[in-house]
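Hi R.,

As promised, here are both runs. First protein below:
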Amino acid sequence: MSQDLKPADVALFLPAFTIGGVERMRLNLAQGFLKAGYSVEMVALDASGPLRNEVPEGVRVIDLGGGRMLGALPKLVRYFQHHKPRTFLSALDYANLVSLWAHGIARVDTRIYIGTHKVLSLATAESVLLREKVVMPALLRRAYPRADGIIAVSDGIADDLVKYLGLPQKRVTVIHNPALTDKVLAQAQYPVEHPWLATPEDAARTIISVGRLDRQKDFPTLLRSVHKLRKTRPHLRVIILGEGPDRTRIAAAATTLGLELGQGGQVDLPGFTTNPYAYMSRAALFVSSSEWEGFGNVHVEALGCGCPVVSTDSPSGPADILENGKYGPLVPVGDAAALATAIDQTLKDPLPSEQLHARAMTFHVDRVLENYLLLMQL
């Protein structure tokens, strides 16, 4: 590091600038710290990726040169020794583990904080790999207590860390994701050229869901709920924004249920968009049918756009965001009948958009940043 370059107040570590919830939350935090007057570095194992251009101006990017995460250990040791940031924030289990090892080897005064965005016990139960089911939890149990702070993005994740890894309750702090930003609120006002949202009458019978087309989001349950509502709501339609490996399976599920695909039917799969918020601000309802969620950033974004939300009570974030049903119904995972009932009732009697927006503002980056600053003593 150059002699005239002062150590950063905050360093944020991530594997790469790929499109993902954790990566976007890191960028939101970087913007928040910078806006609050702190110097910020983003340290990436590989500093390439589609989100690289969204790094806020004024944030230094440190590229560790790529490779596997374990291979980053000596690179991170050198980073700590040469850059000596005041505080270092990591997320994702492998990155957390390597960060803690490097920090210990470097023997620097940097305070290190690790975050976790998933229910670890569920993730390990789902895996068929020995290293995921046995080795990784054992390593985390030994390493995590060495952190200056452990951050869970939901109450459910915090409880799981305490029970599954045996961490002391006082060592785990719940800080929700900074899922809402001024940029999201601005993009919500952009025009949308989808015909189902062209007029208030069209939008009133259109629901929306957003997410990667994979097993986690369980879109077939959403489609079954729409099918159940066809008798009483024959004009109901659903737009599912996202892309992923289950596109063919989801399309087949719609066809099996007699739901026509495309803008002439009841289900449209237009693919990934960088601005789902403009859809959220116009649709009658946002629905999440996920089997699990670490937090549920899209829930917050929908609320911020003034869009009513119906969600499965998936572990572990939706209950936090919707305050156990106060700001939107929560239904059992995989229960299409319950989801259909909740959709119908919410369409009949939605909460005022101002109330939904006010709830979302508790997850605005400016509000969330206050909790980070308190924990990190900056």
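And here is the second one, sequence first, then its structure tokens:
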Amino acid sequence: MTTDPAQPQPSTSRRPSNIVLIGLMGSGKTTVGKLVAHSLGFSFIDTDEIIVKNAGKPIPDIFAAEGETGFRQHETAALQQLLNQLQQHAVIATGGGIVTRPENLPLLKQLGYVVWLYATPNTLHHRTAHSDDRPLLRNADPAGTLRNLLEARADLYKLASDLKITTDDLSAHDVAYGVSESVRVEFAKQSA
């Protein structure tokens, strides 16, 4: 497993003891997030589930009715809702494009310790090839779309994250173990 501390960030000591997972679709945020939550005894929250519940319709229908811009507004609202209901000891999985709105970056940091689950475009394409609920991949070249999205968002993921974990050659359980152990160390530093 490759872990990289992201560029220096302000102290996390004032942030809640939550783990926020970011990364492109297919990076494993939901799968890994549930495993990490179980391992640590944390609750699991998926911002996509909050959006679907608040909108009363599935994500592809939100994209169809409001476009990507409308969906991104729903993401920001979900982050603000989580901050208003702030809790401790949660693993929060976010949508892949949540970093594309500048106002979301400080919201992510306010929610907790941010971990970027990174995978190469080839790995992401393999993981998402059989999924039909990803509106941005409904085109003739989903692999190319993933390459372009990663290229466009990599600097934003780096800016938003406290830690980057490369997941390509790892099982979800291995990644979850790495996340769990990394945050245990970080949270122990915060409480020292």
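A quick note on the second one: The radius of gyration is 16 Å. Let me know what you think.

Best,
J.
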